[in-house]
Amino acid sequence: MYLLVVEDDPAISRFLVKGLREQRCVVDLIENGLDAEGAALAAEYDAIVLDIMLPGMDGLTLCRRLREQQVDTPILVVTARDSVTGRVEGLDVGADDYLAKPFEFAELVARLRAIVRRGRTRHLSAVMTHGGISVDLRDQHVTVDGRPLSLTATEYRLLLHLMRRAGSIVSRAQLAEHAWGSEYDPESNVVDVYVSYLRRKLQHTSADGLIRTIRGMGYMLGTSEPHA
To answer: Mean pLDDT, the chain, as a whole number?
Structure first.
């Protein structure tokens, strides 16, 4: 899943982002409502995890504004307001589900999967394809030329981000942020190492050569070229 997490509490955001990335999710983290609105309008997320108490614009206002602008991305509201009134407010402004803090991480993941399944009937394709690569976003199953491709969680996140940005240059820093978040050491060559792992697994398939190095800029998932 490609998720937008909107949470300003550093401890909670670290916990959420780390856990979700371990679940093979690609996660963007934003800490205020105003920036989150711009991100939600600019990208096609599978779901949004939205706190209510936010600087700039509260979560309920943000949710209502997104719905008014025809953004139908599934939204899971996460808040400390554990009351019937609070839940009703969230659902009334357009949230798809509501989870009170504190919560079990497994329940959050289950609720996300449920709202994404429901939301796909509105605007999301369950399968993403590019150049012989096919990713079933529901079960995170990857095939190439119809054959299963075994990937680690990190390899999956890198591949998914490249596929979402196919045809565009993705910097090493962007790939690192989606795969490792704040744990990434900018002096490390770990991005290059993992891209080489992906390339190796795509060898001898129709996707061989799709991941291109753009010197001094990063990587790009391009189109297939004939091989000698």
So the answer is: 85
Q: Which domain holds residue 141?
A: 127-221
Q: Which of 69, 104, 120 is the last residue of a domain?
A: 120
% of the chain at pLDDT higher than 70: 88
Query: Which CATH number fits the domain that encloses residue 191?
Result: 1.10.10.10
Buried b (16+ CB within 10 A) or exposed e, 143-164: ebeeeebebeebbbbbbbbbbb
Reported as type and span, the H/E element at residue 76 is strand 75-79
| Between residues 10 and 79, the one the model is more confident about | 10
Last residue of a domain, one of 80, 96, 120: 120
pTM over 0.70: no
Residues 98 and 157 in one domain: no
Span 76-106, pLDDT tens digits: 998 876 555 556 676 778 888 888 888 899 9
158 contact partners, CB below 8 Å, separation of at least 6: 175, 178, 179, 191, 194, 195, 198
Q: What is the percent of the chain with per-residue pLDDT over 90, rounded to a whole number?
A: 47
Same domain assignment for residues 140 and 173: yes
Long-range contacts of 199-202 (CB under 8 A, 24+ apart): 201/149, 201/150, 201/151, 201/155, 202/133, 202/144, 202/149
| pLDDT > 60? residue 124 | no
- Residues 86, 149, single domain; the answer is no
DSSP 103: -
Asked if 93 and 153 sit in the same domain, the reply is no
